[in-house]
Amino acid sequence: MKTVLITGANRSIGFETARQLAAQGYFIYLGSRSLESGQEALEKLKAEGLTNVEPLQIDIADEASIRTAREELGKKTDSLDVLINNAGISGPMPQSTTTTDTAAIRQVFDTNFFGTINVTQTFLDLLRKSNEPRIVNVTSGLGSLEMQTDPASKFYHVKSAAYGPSKTALNAYTVVLAYELRDTPFKINVVDPGYTATDFNQHSGPGTVEDAGKIIAKYAAIGADGPTGQFFSNDADGEGDEMPW
User: Fold this and answer.
1) Taking the CA atoms of the chain, what radius of gyration do you get in angstroms?
2) Contacts for 155 with CB less than 8 Å, ≥ 6 apart
3) Which residues have CB under 8 Å from 48's CB, separation 6+?
4) Which UniProt keywords apply (predicted)?
5) What is the C-alpha end-to-end distance of the chain, expressed in Å?
6) The predicted structure's pLDDT at residue 195
7) How is 69-102 classified by DSSP, letter by letter?
8) pLDDT > 60? residue 202
9) Angle 209-220/12-23 helices, nearest 10 degrees?
10) Are 85 and 166 in contact (CB under 8 A)?
């Protein structure tokens, strides 16, 4: 049974992704900042008959928490097949580029960018032991520079000093990571679940968590002939899932 670690898996899109992959037969480690919220998520999935799940406490903004989570996971499994870096924060809104305090911007980057990098690097040794390691970095369409500079884009007027740029940086890191590991079995992509109605945006998005979880699960489960170093989205313009950088 393949193993998956999903950060921020106790609610919303992370939880739905866990549900879908568990239903497909993966063993899911539910990453959450508190063990209590992870346990609550576990009980919900068990009530649906999904027993191949287990909570794992991990706060991606805390390096000590990440190291402890790696130690705990190492006691449970010798390898990891899929890492889904889903956890993230938006920061206080609105985010004017001229008035938002740099401390607030740094807090968003510490989670969405540096936190994701820390998790990836810390769990990379377990991923290397998989025959088909996969990494999905959950991003946003607001991180697409092409979409952000195209007046015809439906999100052209949605700008943020911290959140969008943190995802742009994450996209760039993913490209470099995928290139560095290009001659290995790794498949590493960024996936935007689309503008989804969740607690993250006060349930204002038109998309569903079911559709959001579906696209993340899709690229977590790609085969050896699948893409790497690419950007996919439910909000992509044109045909297919591919999103412009």
Assistant:
1) 17
2) 141, 142, 147, 148, 195, 235
3) 19
4) NADP, Oxidoreductase
5) 34
6) 84
7) HHHHHHHH-S--SEEEE------SS---TTTS-H
8) no
9) 60
10) no
**Amino acid letter at 66?**
I
Task: Count Cβ atoms within 10 A of the Cβ of residue 152 and give its class: 0-12 exposed, 13-18 middle, 19 or more buried.
Answer: exposed
Identify the pLDDT of residue 46. 97
Q: What is the pLDDT of residues 5-43, one digit of tens each?
A: 999 999 999 999 999 999 999 999 999 999 999 999 999
pLDDT tens digits for range 79-92? 999 999 999 999 99
Nearest to 211 by CA among 197, 225, 230: 197
Which residue reads 């911007």 in tokens? 105
Query: Would you say 222 and 134 are in contact if contact means Cβ atoms under 8 Å apart?
Result: yes
**Per-residue model confidence as pLDDT tens digits over 131-154:** 999 999 999 999 999 999 999 998
Q: Delineate the domains of the chain, giving CATH numbers in brackets.
A: 3-233 (3.40.50.720)
Average of per-residue pLDDT across 94-118: 97
> pTM for the complete prediction?
0.95
How many CB atoms within 10 Å of residue 170? 25
Active site residues: 163, 167
- Residue 83 near residue 119, CB atoms below 8 Å: yes
Q: Would you call 61 helix, strand, or coil by DSSP?
A: coil
